[in-house]
Amino acid sequence: MTIKLLIVDDHHVVRQGLSFVLEQQESLTIIGQASNGLEAIQFIDTNQLPDLVLLDLSMPKMDGVETTAIIKRKNPDIKIVVLTSFDDQDHVISAIRAGADGYCLKDTSPEDLVATIHEVNNGIKKVDSKVATHLFQHVSKPADEETLAIKQLTIREKEVLIELSMGKSNKEIAETLFITEKTVKTHISNIFSKLPVQDRTQAALFAVKHGIAN
Length: 214
Description:
Elements: E1 3-8, H1 12-22, E2 28-34, H2 37-46, E3 52-55, H3 64-74, E4 79-84, H4 89-98, E5 102-105, H5 110-121, E6 126-127, H6 129-139, H7 143-151, H8 155-165, H9 170-177, H10 181-194, H11 200-209
Parallel strand pairs: 1-2, 1-3, 3-4, 4-5, 5-6
């Protein structure tokens, strides 16, 4: 049985290059290509289901993170390997949170990419070694310092952080917690000053990492 692949990348040359390389493998079959997340989801909904999706992160109309989340929600058995040039912590964590089974950089060798595809298809989670280094550095930051930072938050600040991690605007947070937008802004400012974060995205990731938000 060959592994059926769907290649998703907004660059035609990249898609063609990947197809050329991967089709040399008898164990792999390219069943389709898509230039963005919307096309990928439409393909899966209307065609043969792939075993594994090779997915870029930065794409128009729908990025890789949102695409991953939707595919996994509708077809949890489909494996997803992110293939991207982004090796920073935020992109890695966001992709993994969305359900990615593997994370490769675009400068990986064809042999390593093929190996990753087979491992992920067999149920093994695989993260590029360069990315893993950044990820472990992020996860292994002094836990005591971060734990102490969390303890500085008031109950209300934690409530605001939870709502913020859900992507809500200040107005929506205010309506949910029955407080004014001005008060929300004050709480968010306090959160930024107490936690090792500089923006809403970092705060949301921090909340998820430490189990403050689901």
